[in-house]
Design goal:
This is Aminotransferase. The chain has 391 residues and is of the alpha/beta class. It has helices spanning 5-8, 19-29, 48-59, 72-86, 101-112, 129-135, 155-162, 184-196, 253-265, 272-283, 285-307, 335-346, 372-390, and strands spanning 35-37, 95-98, 118-123, 139-144, 166-172, 200-204, 229-234, 247-250, 314-316, 323-327, 348-352, 363-367.
Amino acid sequence: MQLSDRITGINAGGSDGWGIYIKARDMERAGQKVIHLTIGEHDVRTDRTILDAMHAATLAGHTGYSFGSGSPGLRERIARRVSERTGVTTTPDNVLVVPGGQAGLFATHMAACDPGDRALFIDPYYATYPGTIRSVGARPVPVLARAERMFQPDAADIAAAAGDGAASLLINSPNNPTGVAYSQETMEGIARTCQDHDLWLISDEVYDTQLWHGRHITPRALPGMAERTLVIGSLSKSHAMTGSRIGWVVGPEEALEHMGHLATNTTYGVAGFVQEAASFALDQGEGFETTIAAPFRRRRDLVLRLLDGQNVVRPIPPDGTMYVMLDIRATGLSGEAFAEALLDKHHVAVMPGESFGKAAAGHLRVALTVDDAQLEEAMRLLLALAAERAG
């Protein structure tokens, strides 16, 4: 039987970018100790109080079908959170509850793109972006954010890629993998370009609570952008709820109404007991979110201190997220070759920059997702290997 071109073409016949992660897991299953600095998975699990709320909701009977745009209570709670934090008036009709940020990426591109449309995204990018775009039948078009500009996208580059007929632009700030938060100037340039070229702007903001410098800027708050911006949010990073698969899309009411029909015909909603737990989690306030984010800020500072006094490995100063991106081009190795050598020799797993696009070639992404002692050990091994190869 012949499979569809759409399903066989999700990765365009290439790698999905997760080779090092899979190899590290295989090594661990074979009995080898590996320090995993690959994926954005918290080293602490979901707080017990949230799990208790989820359990109570289960016992209270929130176990039936939950199709539609989400429970009224959770949509109201998300709308209030977004209004308070962004200054943009947001109602429950502007909110769609989805099973995690990844589902939000799919739903927003389904809303913005017809089959064959060109969908722009910034490179470096989270590894699923091009595959998600292909999954909806659109054509992914990367726009390079160059290292010499500290990975801030250039509006002129976006405009050149948009040409006459691109449908959407996907951005992510604070950015995975670079840790860079887009500046006011960058966001204004993006907004201006989207208006000039009639682009939908899809803004992945799942790291909005992990910001170490400046303030979070959502393009939805910029003049003329609320009607053309779809924002993706999630509790995965802010509340260490990665496995609960709970997130949202915020945008214009008409778009969200149609995306609700998509949800009914794909996921059939998010489990009611998970939605109840999400409402409870959001009610814990910003102090709770600050506590979840604190280890990553501390570990960011730890890594930067370890990098002082040497000039082989250069950090991209991270404004936020749970990652630090390292420039290892002085070693003469690609990111892929260095990551393979580090895993084979020292059993430390990091993601090569090439997993996140051409602009990140010659870099590594280090996830700050192990305790401080393991992180320090891993970084010392990484720096020793870099000095050896550079020498």
